[in-house]
Specification:
The protein has two domains: 3-159, Hotdog Thioesterase (Thiol Ester Dehydrase, Chain A); 177-308, no CATH class. β7 and β8 form a beta hairpin. Strands 1, 2, 3, 4, 5 and 6 form a six-stranded antiparallel beta sheet that branches. The longest helix has 12 residues, at 75-86. The chain is mainly β. It is built from four helices and 14 strands.
């Protein structure tokens, strides 16, 4: 239903009662005042002793229905919400409230109230999704005398489509920037010490063999074997799972099952952690030959992964 069709139907409910002759489930009482003040850390002496008053901001608390809810809600309230639900605006979130205080509430006061649907906004677009703000005004009485007004605003909305989760971004710094530049060019670069020619991975600022800070890089052949692996079962991360070997593109499954993370020993002798693709997770084996590929994880990120090969393939 379009906005032009729906909004006039919603506006009809402005000014109609949402509840009538409501009665608070408890008299204003000292224990509830004490609990409120302790929870809020409010030590105002006006809320203690034989002449205590209730904190003004407790106004709504005396009208709340608790787990058993309220009776006395009018048909207009339920009809409005059913209309919004039927149009796809079924989610709800409280946004804010406004209160006006006309007299202090004291222990022993009997609270009664009426409420009215005050306003329904035009359709608004929020980060949660498009929807309508509904404001209800409650007029509160203490022993029959006006005591305050409570306006409560909610958003009835259609949740915006969730964006597919993205893989975490790699931390790129001076020590490993050349590696990621190589990945962007579909080259898997291994750091090599310029002094003793020791290869190292991951990239580090100094050689673990001789301590030299001088280095260059060599391109990996791309052949490797599974040195070790783990299977991630839980928790499920949509951005990481679903690699079935059918495509080089990252999957868009919302609830992937288990997936294999391998420690790959490259032909050059260094090892690196990556996904093993091309076979189901439960068919990955230590010693399995693999071959380097580059996977487009999203529009900004490309990653080296390893596709399982048949035994004897290179």
């Amino acid at each position: 239903m379009s906005e032009d069709e729906l909004y006039p139907l919603l506006k009809v409910y402005e000014g109609r009662g949402a509840s009538a002759s409501g009665v608070g489930k408890d008299l204003v009482n000292t224990p509830m005042i004490r609990h409120w003040c302790e929870a809020m850390g409010d030590r105002n002496p006006a809320y203690e002793g034989p002449d205590a008053i209730a904190p003004p901001t407790m106004l709504q608390a005396w009208t709340m229905g608790g787990l058993s809810g309220h009776t006395g809600r009018t048909g207009a309230h339920d009809e409005l919400f059913a209309l919004l639900d039927g149009a796809g605006f079924a989610a709800v979130v409280a946004t804010d409230c406004e209160q006006e205080y006309l007299r202090p509430l004291r222990p022993g006061h009997r609270i009664t109230y009426d409420s009215v649907i005050e306003t329904v906004s035009p359709r608004k677009t929020t980060k949660l999704g498009a929807g309508y703000f509904v404001t209800t005004r409650m007029d509160v009485r203490a022993d029959g005398e006006p005591a305050g007004t409570h306006r409560f605003r909610i958003l009835k909305y259609a949740p915006a489509a969730a964006r597919r989760p993205r893989r975490p971004r790699p931390v790129v710094n001076r020590d490993n920037a050349a590696f990621w530049e190589g990945v962007a060019r579909h080259r898997l670069l291994i750091q090599r010490c310029a002094s003793c020619a020791t290869l190292r991975f991951p990239w580090l600022p100094g050689c673990g063999a001789c301590g030299s800070a001088e280095w260059d890089a060599v391109e990996a052949d791309g052949a490797g074997t599974v040195y070790s692996y783990v299977v991630v079962h839980h928790p499920r991360f949509p951005a990481f799972g679903g690699f079935d070997g059918a495509s080089r593109e990252a999957p868009d499954a919302e609830g992937p099952g288990p997936y294999a993370v391998g420690l790959i020993e490259l032909a050059e002798g260094v090892r690196m952690v990556s996904n093993v693709i091309g076979v189901p997770y439960d068919e990955v084996r230590i010693g399995m030959p693999v071959r380097l590929e580059f996977m487009r994880a999203d529009e900004e990120l490309e990653l080296p992964v390893f596709r399982a090969l048949e035994e004897g393939a290179g």
